[in-house]
Inverse folding.
């Protein structure tokens, strides 16, 4: 993603996340976290339409990375065992390369061997509910569900040719979070959202080491992976992303 566009997304979403966390502070506790890092792709296959287009590798056009990435998370802990979390995760990559075969995309034929601009966007906005079903001195486990709104687009462009497919949709996901506290300040945190069906799947999973370095403040670092896609008459898209991330969080 272009750094300037990434910064615009962060600023746009920061105001909303701060507002939600501040609101939570007045009726429970609020938490805001900024996560950033480096993104790489190991897969990004596309065929549009799904029942008649030509399958191609978007990585031939955009490259596999690295790309900067960021997301914002705002949590309202309105009860000791119940919480709501808003996640704002913009994602976009683009580049220029050449298709290895003549490619039909959105009923437009793009010849091989011609400089082709490719763009892949997959912004997600999620609202999750989590119930903490187990809490002890060392362990904390929570389970719930998320509503994910995706704002996706894939486009190709050559001199005199351009086609794009966008998609705005709602996807329900399951949510699981586990924390193992090694001491009063350090925890290993696993966080997963995902679902699977015959038409496709979506998985967003992270494993991070968290450090509460002063009251109300914490830092974390670790690995996040995102994998999934859809396979139907309209689209075939499957991607696998890998991220090395660091984050800074504050509680109110």
């Amino acid at each position: 993603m272009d750094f300037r566009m990434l910064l615009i997304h962060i600023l746009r979403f920061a105001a909303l996340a701060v507002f939600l966390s501040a609101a939570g502070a007045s009726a429970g506790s609020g938490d805001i976290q900024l996560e950033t890092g480096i993104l790489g792709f190991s897969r990004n296959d596309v065929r549009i339409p799904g029942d008649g287009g030509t399958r191609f590798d978007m990585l031939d056009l955009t490259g596999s990375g690295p790309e900067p990435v960021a997301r914002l998370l705002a949590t309202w802990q309105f009860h000791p065992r119940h919480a709501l979390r808003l996640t704002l995760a913009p994602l976009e990559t683009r580049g220029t390369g050449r298709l290895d075969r003549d490619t039909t995309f959105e009923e437009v034929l793009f010849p091989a061997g011609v400089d082709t601009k490719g763009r892949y966007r997959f912004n997600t906005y999620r609202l999750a509910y989590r119930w903490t079903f187990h809490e002890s001195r060392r362990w904390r486990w929570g389970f719930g569900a998320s509503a994910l709104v995706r704002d996706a687009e894939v486009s190709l462009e050559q001199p005199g040719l351009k086609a794009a497919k966008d998609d705005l949709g709602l996807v329900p996901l399951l949510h699981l979070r586990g924390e193992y506290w090694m001491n009063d300040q350090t925890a290993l945190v696993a966080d997963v959202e995902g679902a699977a069906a015959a038409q496709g799947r979506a998985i967003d999973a992270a494993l991070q080491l968290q450090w509460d370095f002063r009251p109300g403040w914490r830092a974390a670092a670790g690995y996040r992976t995102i994998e999934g896609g859809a396979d139907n008459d309209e689209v075939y898209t499957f991607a696998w992303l890998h991220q090395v991330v660091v984050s800074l969080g504050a509680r109110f």
